[in-house]
């Protein structure tokens, strides 16, 4: 495995298994004595055998020594940090790194599937593994002091993906690769916002949120990345506050373009007043989309409901999702039209299962992989997730929620996931080839470059899309539409 491949392995392979613990009501001096004897800098605090908080030597310095408090009068609960930041032992190492960087902490408790403490991992553990990796990229994003430095770091994300692809990326790791790209893009955006606020926008009102939409909202970006973002703000804000948000949104979009993230061709960006509204105005817009499901409204709403708060007040997102769920419980016409729209993108399979590429033009003989199957799966799963009220996360996470709710069975979900992963793998591979050949990455793959095994797997994946479309057509009773 390439050295960078370490970051696609589970945390349990690297965490420290021996963890010193204590109770929240243990005497502070007793726990400090144990820390000194074992030469450790932190102790995990457990309640009912579950990790509850953490006490570090920094807490002792800042909350006891600096405050001049008598430690003999204190219990651990008085100075510990709670709730404790945790990560699952089967989560990936780069996710641990991302969490530490995002929360500005140095250690994470590692838990098993039952929530019980199974280890601890620190940023020092990760740094020792490697110095020039996704880990270093995340640190460099956090430490970028200006837009030029951030632009340089952003350009390295593409280089990292190309490098990791050299070792070959299979369907088992493509999901991890996509999640890594999404995490890094999130970090870039958050650091850019921090720089803008530090430089010009320290006075922004608290009641607003920058949200990301579409594939960015689902965390499913590959190398072909543009902007899909919007702003929601409180109805109580005054004209001056709204004007500052408008100025911020323009500066944000311009800065994203400057560091290398192109604008959305459809104008789905926060600097567009159509995608920057108060909560009540967004609720009105969502209501119009849902009540009159024209093809244009279905497309716009389908992008919007992948909403994910990247910065600011998360309550707006929840309010809009609650409105969506409430509407479709009363009237499923929008969902039926949404699914009807996905069926327009039928997998291009001809006689004897032959895959049909473009017949003319500059992409003759090539397959537009997003239209061939990726869109049908992501939008079909989205429709099921809306109906079930489980719209959080990626397509895979939504599928897992649908299995738990018995909307789809585990075998069907596994088949959908396998088809989706292979199509995304083909998409990313085509984009990597384009970058290496000096072309602009897009969603086309050259069928002639695929070997017989790859063509066979592509054929199976597209047939899997066909089966899924048959399922959702029946599930939503599309025969009732006229």
From TrEMBL:
PROSITE patterns: CBS
InterPro entries: CBS_dom, CBS_dom_sf, Diverse_CBS-Domain, DUF294_put_nucleoTrafse_sb-bd, GlnD_Uridyltrans_N
Pfam family, one: CBS
SUPFAM superfamilies: CBS-domain pair
The entry's keywords: CBS domain
GO terms of molecular function: [protein-PII] uridylyltransferase activity
CDD domains, per the entry: NT_GlnE_GlnD_like
Species, as recorded: Candidatus Accumulibacter proximus
Domain CBS per the UniProt entry, residue ranges: 15-72, 80-137
Name used for this protein in its record: CBS domain-containing protein
């Amino acid at each position: 495995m390439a050295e960078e491949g370490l970051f696609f392995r589970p945390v349990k392979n690297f965490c420290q298994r021996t963890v010193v613990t204590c109770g929240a009501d243990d005497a502070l001096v007793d726990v400090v004595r144990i820390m000194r004897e074992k030469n450790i800098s932190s102790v995990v605090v457990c309640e009912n055998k579950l990790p509850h908080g953490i006490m570090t030597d920094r807490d002792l310095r800042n909350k006891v020594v600096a405050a001049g408090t008598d430690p003999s009068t204190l219990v651990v609960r008085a100075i510990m940090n709670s709730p404790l930041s945790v990560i699952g032992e089967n989560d990936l190492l780069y996710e641990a790194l991302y969490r530490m960087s995002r929360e500005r902490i140095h250690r994470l408790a590692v838990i098993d599937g039952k929530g019980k403490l199974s280890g601890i991992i620190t940023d020092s553990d990760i740094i020792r593994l490697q110095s020039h990796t996704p880990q270093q990229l995340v640190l460099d994003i956090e430490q970028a002091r200006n837009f030029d430095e951030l632009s340089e770091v952003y350009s390295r994300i593409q280089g990292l993906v190309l490098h990791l692809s050299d070792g070959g990326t299979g369907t088992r790791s493509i999901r991890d690769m996509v999640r890594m790209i999404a995490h890094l893009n999130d970090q870039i955006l958050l650091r850019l916002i921090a720089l803008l606020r530090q430089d010009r926008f320290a006075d922004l009102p608290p009641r607003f949120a920058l949200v990301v939409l579409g594939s960015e909202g689902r965390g499913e970006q590959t190398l072909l990345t543009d902007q899909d973002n919007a702003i929601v703000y409180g109805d109580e804000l005054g004209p001056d506050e709204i004007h500052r948000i408008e100025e911020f949104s323009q500066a944000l979009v311009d800065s994203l373009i400057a560091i290398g993230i192109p604008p959305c061709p459809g104008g789905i960006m926060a600097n567009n007043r159509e995608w920057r509204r108060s909560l009540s105005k967004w609720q009105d817009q969502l209501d119009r989309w849902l009540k009159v499901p024209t093809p244009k409204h279905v497309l716009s709403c389908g992008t919007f409901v992948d909403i994910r708060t990247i910065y600011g007040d998360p309550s707006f997102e929840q309010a809009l999702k609650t409105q969506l769920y409430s509407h479709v419980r009363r009237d499923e016409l929008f969902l039926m039209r949404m699914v009807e729209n996905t069926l327009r993108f039928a997998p291009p399979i001809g006689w004897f299962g032959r895959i049909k590429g473009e017949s003319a033009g500059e992409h003759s003989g090539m397959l537009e992989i997003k239209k061939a199957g990726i869109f049908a799966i992501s939008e079909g799963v989205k429709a099921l997730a809306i109906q079930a009220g489980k719209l959080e996360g990626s397509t895979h996470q939504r599928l897992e929620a649908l299995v738990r709710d018995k909307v789809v069975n585990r075998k069907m979900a596994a088949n959908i996931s396998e088809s989706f992963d292979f199509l995304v793998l083909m998409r990313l591979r085509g984009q990597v080839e384009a970058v290496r050949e000096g072309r602009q990455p897009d969603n086309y793959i050259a069928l002639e470059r695929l070997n017989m095994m790859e063509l066979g797997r592509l054929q199976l994946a597209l047939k899997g899309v066909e089966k899924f479309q048959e399922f959702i057509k029946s599930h939503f009773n599309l025969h009732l539409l006229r």
